[in-house]
Design a protein that fits this description.
By secondary structure, this protein is of the alpha+beta class. The chain is built from five helices and nine strands; from the N terminus they run H-H-H-H-H-E-E-E-E-E-E-E-E-E. Helix 2 crosses helix 4. The longest helix has 11 residues. 32% of the residues are buried.
Length: 191
């Protein structure tokens, strides 16, 4: 699957398991229109719909994002880290020429993992809706000041702060002061 886009991977898995777009939509709770946009147009949604789609397909999130499968330990060297996908772009703005949230996978080569560790570069103008999905998340702020909206609460985290929370509660993160933020984020999804 290394040479396939996210949409192509979803299509391939759907066809392998004889799952229609409508069935995937029903299983995942993600609209059939969004599934079509991902598969046909190369749209990259926020992380929450991707997790729901993976669950609807009966695979790990990493299966949709993986380039390789490695059974032993995986070392991710700084020079090998590249953006896996971008999200959090203001509505109607193309990914080219505008910044949102860039996710840099730290364990893309590890097979059968249950955690998805990322370095996330959050631009000052990144926008996203609150999301909810199964699992848990851990965030450590590496640079900048982050706003975390969690349920009805709002927390501000500065460089060196961290938070661990249940992802089932509606949440989102963004720059607290209109400056870029860099975080280490680990998403755990149950099997």
């Amino acid at each position: 699957m290394a040479s396939h886009s996210l949409g192509e991977r979803i299509t391939e898995i759907r066809k392998t398991y004889s799952i229609s777009r409508e069935d995937l939509s029903e299983r995942s709770g993600v609209s059939a229109d969004l599934v079509a946009r991902i598969e046909d147009d190369g749209h990259i949604p926020d992380l929450a719909p991707l997790i729901k789609i993976a669950r609807g397909l009966g695979v790990r999130l990493g299966t949709l994002l993986d380039d390789h499968d490695k059974l032993g330990p995986v070392i991710c060297r700084t020079e090998d880290t590249s953006s896996r996908f971008k999200t959090g772009l203001p509505e109607g703005v193309a990914a080219t020429g505008h910044h949102g949230m860039a996710f840099y996978a730290l364990a893309a080569d590890k097979s059968s993992r249950h955690m998805e560790p990322f370095i996330v570069a959050i631009e000052a103008d990144a926008q996203q809706d609150k999301s909810t999905h199964e699992g848990e998340e851990f965030i450590h702020v590496m640079e900048g000041t982050l706003t975390l909206e969690y349920g009805m609460d709002k927390e501000f985290l500065k460089t060196g702060d961290s938070v661990y929370y249940d992802s089932i509660v509606p949440h989102r993160v963004y720059s607290a002061d209109n400056n870029p933020v860099k975080i280490l984020a680990v998403v755990y999804t149950p099997v």
